[in-house]
Amino acid sequence: MDPIIVGAVLYDPKVSVIWDIIGAFFREKGTPLDTVYYTNYELQVRALLGGHIDVAWNSPLAWVQSQAISGGGCRAIAMRDTDRDRRSHVVVPRGGPVAKVADLAGRTIAFGASDSPQATLIPIEHLRRQGLAAGSYEARRFDVLVGKHGDHIGGELQALQAMQRGEAAASCLIDLNWEAWTHDGTCDPTKYEILTSTGPYDHCVFTVLEGFPRDREEAFLRALHAMDYKNPTHREMMDLEGLKRWEPGRTTGFELLTSACREQGVVSPL
Amino acid sequence: METQEWRIRFRGEPGGGGVAYARGHQFAVGDPVSFDPLHSRITALEYLLAALAADLAGSLRRLAPRHRIVINDLEVAVKGMTDRPLVFLGVVGEEGEAGLDRIEVKVYVETGSSAEEVRTLWQGALRVSAIARMLGGSTRLELELRTA
Questions:
Q1: Is A5 an interface residue toward B (CB < 8 Å)?
Q2: B70 with B133, same domain?
Q3: Model confidence pTM above 0.90
């Protein structure tokens, strides 16, 4: 069997360790896998649609872009358990002047990188649906590693810190970071609270073109789903990638982001 | 004088790395570079840094007798650094060429001789350390001698 070529975006060389472990396991299972790394998702989307790679480990925005540009010509074949039903929070100081979404009008809201689904695009869409139009507040974005779709938490963290310094009335972040940062001391939950949360959405997804051969897809999924959190080697990779189990891909969790992209004019031809 | 040559043969293995053969010896080599602290083999880059350390240490030992210096203890610490690690992985869209931006070398030498005598030995060792001279031609090599 020819190797299945998987594309992945790297923001840190340590992330390559994840793919080394996955590649070694796939080889053991008789499904050779090669990885091509990209600096940003635009390049990866282009490579997938151009047939240079077989499978793309896509951010949610890269999935939406792939579907939009290909006219629905992609399939979502697998995702992490932790990619499902995520939410983003808009966080404010407790006891401050902002008690409801409408109170944010005329104030500054801190967002992550401009292309971060979880810390920018989806929260803006959520606020719009709550009656707070994009022009009615000042958006302060923290553009850390644009092109990586918010994979790096730097932008989200800087947004939170700006709010903590009093430079913004609110900041936006994914639920996983809220949980982590209120437990590790980064954010004191007695001083800050969730003002509003978005609806559920899905995150990263393995994406293939419609024409990707079914037998190769089945081999890929068979090996992927054979990864076991009880196996210490797999656990190292799964902890690094933040999952306990691989799940089938689904496309029902991208409505919020698709709407956000449409409203904010994000998806553009490559 | 005839040209001297040294030969290495290397057999690659599926999944990366392989075995290097030198005269009657052989040793396993891992990936060219690795960012995994648990990578199962010494990488090619680590062998290069080790070769530099062994080169400097060996040159000091070889020249010490002519300076009437007895080396009681000798240790070399080498650190190779790059600001462009993603280039090593061939990341599409990353610009620049792979390479170390600088190599820091600290040589610790314990002798019964004066610091000045050891420094003279060190200067001599640098002239005959082929690997140090070759690397110094392409990379910023920061060498520091510490004596005791």
A1: no
A2: yes
A3: no
